[in-house]
Amino acid sequence: MNWDLKPDRPIYFQLIEQIELKIISGVYPPGSRLPSVRDMATDAAVNPNTMQRALSELENQGLLHSQRTSGRFVTENEEIIMNMKYSIAKNVVQEFIERMHSLGYNGEEIITLLKQIEEER
Amino acid sequence: MNWDLKPDRPIYFQLIEQIELKIISGVYPPGSRLPSVRDMATDAAVNPNTMQRALSELENQGLLHSQRTSGRFVTENEEIIMNMKYSIAKNVVQEFIERMHSLGYNGEEIITLLKQIEEER
Amino acid sequence: MNWDLKPDRPIYFQLIEQIELKIISGVYPPGSRLPSVRDMATDAAVNPNTMQRALSELENQGLLHSQRTSGRFVTENEEIIMNMKYSIAKNVVQEFIERMHSLGYNGEEIITLLKQIEEER
Amino acid sequence: MNWDLKPDRPIYFQLIEQIELKIISGVYPPGSRLPSVRDMATDAAVNPNTMQRALSELENQGLLHSQRTSGRFVTENEEIIMNMKYSIAKNVVQEFIERMHSLGYNGEEIITLLKQIEEER
DNA sequence: GTGGTCTAGACCACC
DNA sequence: GTGGTCTAGACCACA
Prior knowledge:
Four copies of one chain form a homotetramer.
Chain A (H helix, E strand, L loop, with lengths): L10 H14 L12 H8 L3 H13 L3 E4 L3 E4 L3 H26 L3 H14 L1
Antiparallel strand pairs in A: 1-2
Chain B binds a DNA duplex through helix 3.
């Protein structure tokens, strides 16, 4: 998996980000059942308590809900997912704009450069 | 200064990046003289050898040149500086595009979102 | 070994030249593994950092590449090696021509003398 | 003048070489009178005794001869000069051939390369 | 004073 | 064990 965790930031925090990404991008589709905490923990080579903490936070955000007996599920409320997706994307975009500004590019130039590089790909 | 150096990547590498930024953004204009190695080192709270290494690499890239007795100078060749600026910007843009793709946005959507968030600022 | 280093020019520079020669002449064949930095340093009676610097420069030139845990290797790209060989030879030849000119020999005379002395050998 | 003397080899020896060169290349023509020892010494920023020693050696080789009252003269025997020129050139050529061999060029290749580089000049 | 070089010795990540 | 990084402190040439 892509669980490469770095020791520079709290691990549970990195887990949250990566699971969010998997939900947003559809790797874990709305309404689907997640693997068990224990499985996810061993997969990420992480203590189950740490994984548990990450999942709890995601539950607080409304992205997940657990059914005591049958496991944890991704919310079926796609609006919540879309909001999460938008708020993450907004951060990414704002960071990007700031970096480009500090490099000396203004709004129009950013758009131009972006289109140009996208075409090259 | 803005020399906040993190232990997660080589210090000399972060120094290079930050000095590049100062040259590109005009904090150190073309042809201007930089502070002495020792001064820059103490300013960044770093060993002079580490600063020396960073500056040497920038010299290899053609962004700086040194005169043994009188100091180090930013190149007056603005083309080199523009090329450096472009290549850094290209990296930033490519990273950005990849992150947005992994969030599930395609080319057009990225542009739309970018314009929208830019207007809000 | 032939590591006779003279104090008139930077040691790391002389190390670079001599290692280049060993690569070009096939003492260190393409793709082969070099001794460890520490071994080469003690062999040349030089501080490991100095040897490290020489090897790093050769890496920048593309003549070597390093694998963090298993050692440093000569490039397998023989074109790079041939280019290096040619550029060194060019320098040698140009120096030679200049010395002969300052002795008062012109182009044709140099060739004649060269052929003559070569036959005597 | 071009008297740049380096501390790595005996100074009188370097003086000999340079005066030989001036004689061979015609800066001091056959039969011409040299400046006084004292003038040559101050010109080369060297102790007069050192210059004296160099000139004595050249006298032993027959390149110079001194007339007690009127100074030192370059020999008028051009054969001696030609022999000296040839023997120096021979050394230069042999050194050159050895360096090229150690780079992996054989006789024909050396000639080819030499012609090619000479044309580029 | 400037940049440049060198050494000695330490610590790190990786496998 | 490997290469890579960093520090502290020294000395040099140049002007």
